[in-house]
Amino acid sequence: MRDLRKNMFRLSAVVLVFALVGAACGDDEDEAPAPAAEPVEAAPAEPAEAPADDADDTVDDEAADNTVDDEAADDMAEEAAADEAAADDMADDAAGRAADDSLPPVRIGMIAQEEELIAFPEMRAAAEAVVAYFNAELGGIDGHPVEIDVCGAGDGPESHVACAQRFVNADDIHIVVNGGIGTNTAASGAVMAEAGLASMPLGNDFVEYLTPGVYSFEPGIPGLSQVLFVYSAAGGATSATLFLYDDPSVEVFVPAFQAIAADNGIDMNQHIPIGFEPDLTGPISAADTSNDVWMFVLADGAQCQAAANAAKSIGYDGPILTLDSCMQVDVLSTGDLDGWVAPMVSSAPTIDGGADVEVINHIFDTYGSAEAHGAGLGGWALGNVMIAREVLIAAGGADATDESVIATLDGGFTSDTILGFPEVSCPGPDPWIGACNTAPLMVTVDGTDLIAPDGFFPLDFTELNFLLEG
Questions:
Q1: What whole-number distance in Å separates Cα of residue 242 and Cα of residue 267?
Q2: Which fold has domain 222-344?
Q3: Which CATH superfamily is domain 106-219+353-439 in?
Q4: Residue ranges of the domains in the chain?
Q5: Partners of 437 in beta bridges
Q6: Are strands 239-245 and 441-446 parallel, antiparallel or unpaired?
Q7: Is omega for the bond preceding 104 within 30 degrees of 0, making it cis?
Q8: Tens of pLDDT along 66-116?
Q9: What is the tens place of the pLDDT at every residue in 42-55?
Q10: Which pLDDT value is given to residue 26?
Q11: Cβ atoms within 10 Å of 399's Cβ, excluding its own
Q12: In angstroms, how far apart are the furthest CA atoms of the chain?
């Protein structure tokens, strides 16, 4: 257990680079190199002073120094000119790759759960920002502007099914980013799959990973439920308490959670339903503090905040695992989730420093509204819209069809988008054909920041095959 705590709470400094992609600022004119020194003439030497030979040596040394200075100045000037030329080329290239508004648009559908009690408005904001980036800097799709058609839905399946039917009836939409939770995506995904329209869900239901025409670019419930126990077992845990948000659509997964836990040598001997009241001290105080790890599978930031406050109020300081639904900006900013660990997908692109983060922050800073950020489900929306563009390009661009998109995804599509996952490809391992991403990023909350000391955590989906037996 000591190893588990050490593994889950160690700190690692991760540098977030907030650099914008574009031309570097500078003066209009290059800095001129230093002028060459005038030749030095030695003064006649007095007999009592330094010999003439010494004077000649001094002159030679000064001339050599001046030559070195001149060469260094020339090198600096050449480097500055090269940097400015490269920056100009980048700016010209970006400007030259703007989409041609005179061409018909290529449209991407998106179902966004942004209404009623459980809502994620950051999905729409991120999607709109990345589409603006496509059109300004990437030439849209083959020069055609990209449009995102967002259908807002609530927290019940009826509105999601209505959105799905709307996209099925749209002749110019051939792929849909399906951003709902619970049974919503399974219901809407089934409608689109039956009509031959490809969809990319959050992956809330095991059946989605077994349905042709449905492709999840995050491990979803199967992967995230698996990683909670695989990761904990690797740290030495043998017992666990599961807190599950109180909803019939989620409660049905309890037997699967218990089976996956047992398959990894963990006795999930307690599961506690968690409601949406602001004070969760009552149900959380009933948890067994002797269990090696507590796991919170919760719905949204408000519920996560209430759970964190309750855990602190009863004095629990043991390991806590959760899902990325808790990793929202406003919740992290409180510091109450300090030390919590989560397998991340939706926010993974914005955790580690490097070129990917530069691009992502450039997108949000340049094209995003105040609601556009990578936390919550914003990062998931950004990444999936980027992948949808890649799929459409591979499927024929402006000439893509429902059939060509399905054929592209079924034929061994691999994404090279900036998500940074070690392997993102379709189809997934048989029979989990919809599992196009099998490696969540394990992050730890360090105060109010997210760090990734454990990096990506590859999963073997075929280890879940035992759930399909019998």
A1: 11
A2: Rossmann fold (3.40.50)
A3: Response regulator (3.40.50.2300)
A4: 51-96, 106-219+353-439, 222-344
A5: 424
A6: unpaired
A7: no
A8: 554 555 556 555 655 654 554 444 444 444 589 999 999 999 999 999 998
A9: 333 333 444 444 44
A10: 36
A11: 10
A12: 111
